[in-house]
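Researcher: I've been going back and forth with a colleague about how 6-phospho-beta-glucosidase might be arranged in three dimensions. Neither of us has a model we trust, so I'd like an independent prediction. The organism is Candidatus Enterococcus murrayae, in case that matters for your notes. Sequence below.
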Amino acid sequence: MNHCKKGFPKDFLWGGATAANQIEGGFDKGGKGLSTMDMVEFFPREKRSKGKILDLLSRKEIEKILENDLNDGNFPKRRGIDFYHRYKEDIKLFAEMGFKVLRLSISWPRIFPNGDDFEPNEEGLKFYDNVFSELAKYNIEPLVTLCHYEMPLNLVLKYGGWGNRRLIDFFSKYVEVVFDRYKNVVKYWLTFNEINLTTINPYIGAGILADEAKDKNIVYQALHHQFVASATAVKICHEINSEAQIGCMLARLENYPETCDPEDVMVALKDDQYNLFFSDVQSRGYYPGFIKRYFKENDISIVITPEDNELLANNTVDFISYSYYMTMLSSKKIDDEKKVNGNIFVGIKNPYLQNTDWGWQIDPIGLRISLNKLYDRYQKPLFIVENGLGAHDELEENLEIHDDYRIDYTKKHLHQMHEAICDGVEIMGYTSWGCIDLISASTSEMSKRYGFIYVDQDDFGKGSLNRYKKDSFYWYKKVIDSNGKDM
Ligand code: BG6
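Model: Here is an independent structure prediction for 6-phospho-beta-glucosidase. You can compare it with whatever you and your colleague have in mind.
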């Protein structure tokens, strides 16, 4: 037991996190164009085999979806939780919990419906004007992700997604518009959500269709274009507002060696390096040696110009943000028996850890380990922008939701985060993932709930959409009110 009483910094940013494609709905409202996520169907856990992470879509499949009536099928991300119409009510609830920050993303196709439009969509810009002014009313800082797992579908079908270098220009134009429009109301920005998804699910990460996704050269070229686009965003952001801070966003995965066999330890080191390669480029400004070796040994050859290298080196991020949900084991021997699913990862089960209802391994100490490791490596402020428990919740007859398991999960993680602060790690804030129930990214389920606020909607879009406070709502409010002292 430790006795560190340091406490959280007084300006610690407590809050919650969301993404446009998982909450907004209104997929065809206000001039918004179709997004890559509007094509993703309900894909429940039961249908998902071990080792299968999200869907890849082919051109044929998308064309088939587009031939149908857009009301056909079950595409939950098109409806979200109707934040598009209910943002005032939701922000009021966040304010009641005492949020200092709300992480949300701007839907790129709401601003540039086709991605290559000449002018932005004014109605889309107005929607975020309204959201930001509602947040300002309660002194809640927006933390805005520029690209959270979605892009205009047209950029995929017409240009081949991020595999095409022209995407850097389209993205730069989009970010310049939003940095300029919101320069007085948004101080914290993130470029690409979980940029490492690009190599895991190239469709969702980078708009690469199923056939092209088999070609590693296309995938890593797309990733490189995103790195360049991210550095360009950092540059434009600083030029437009020198006070603004902009970070990268990584899905962090700690990998422990399965045994103390040096070969397992080496596999764990390699897995770790591979996970950190993405933040290395964005934070240090260059491709590390180990990844160059990986490219060589895997016959990956991509185009990187001297200008790209200069841009990456001169425009590194101000802070590192990441999602933390689980840890896994690394081993020289991987067989299917040992495998376990995670958010965007598949790995090996750790016998010391328990799983969530969706099989994700719960490891609060791993959060402290990751905070220490990342701070040791980068010496830049860190921001936990996702962490939370996806679980089945029950709305009781008296309209209460008793989610003590979520309180327990969050408390243990916050405790470890505080330990990391005592270790000397600089942490800007914590935004709990899915602070209001939303559509799951990986399965499009509604029944996988993360929120402190319950949303009455089922997997098929049925329900009143009424919002109800869970027990965790009152608990988190207390945590924020006491700046983490009262857990
Ligand atoms: C992260 C994503 O990987 O995990 C979120 O950034 C996502 O968009 C979250 O929702 C939880 O994953 P899931 O699949 O349970 O929604």
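Researcher: What would you highlight for our discussion?
Model: I'd start with this: The chain has a mean pLDDT of 95. After that, consider the following. The two ends are 17 Å apart (CA to CA).
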